[in-house]
Here is the input.
Amino acid sequence: MEYKKVDARIIKKLKEIVGERNVLIEDEEKEPYSHDETLNLVRYMPEVVVKPKNSNQVKEILTLADKGRIPVTPRGGGTGLSGGAIPLHGGILLSLERMNKILEIDTENLMAVLEPGVINGNLQREAEKYGLFYPVNPASLDSCTIGGNVAESAGGANAVKYGITKNYVCGLEVILPTGKILRAGGKLLKNATNHQLIHLLLGSEGTLAVITEITLSLIHIS
Here is the structure.
């Protein structure tokens, strides 16, 4: 597919969507987003970095990019080693770092509902306040995001005993490249709506959709 470049018109529209301060166009600002933790092994500079605050802004950005045939690369904490967060085709680097709210800790159903930019370690510490435990603990737990964990289907030191990310994802809200919003699963274990979509997106590294909300199961601290 032949992609188009980000021009001044696109930059202007992006600033209208997320605000001028959340659109980065200078090389020194964009450089940290050109690589993941493989550091100097792989680097590709995005044409622009955009930081949405909510799913509506993500939808508008993706719709704009789809119409303009501009590539979009979603990014969480950038702590991966697989290159999933590296903008190989330039275009728009969609950083989800500002979408970092824990929306709910449901102690009755043992569930957490959160935005993709929540840091793994922050979720663990918040869950502990309620006597609950989120077992997935990658080595980068204090810098990696839950959205990135889902996109990479991350594991960690507890994987042998407790499993990996895919064992705890019960629901997702995602936005397709066209801007269409889809929901799959939910807090109720019997909610199987679009459940196959969850398994499709786990480990897809942001190539199929942008994750904007996650529902995870928790366990009691033993």
Q: What stands out?
A: The chain has a mean pLDDT of 93. The radius of gyration is 17 Å. Residues 150 and 164 are 10 Å apart (CA to CA). The longest helix spans residues 55-68.
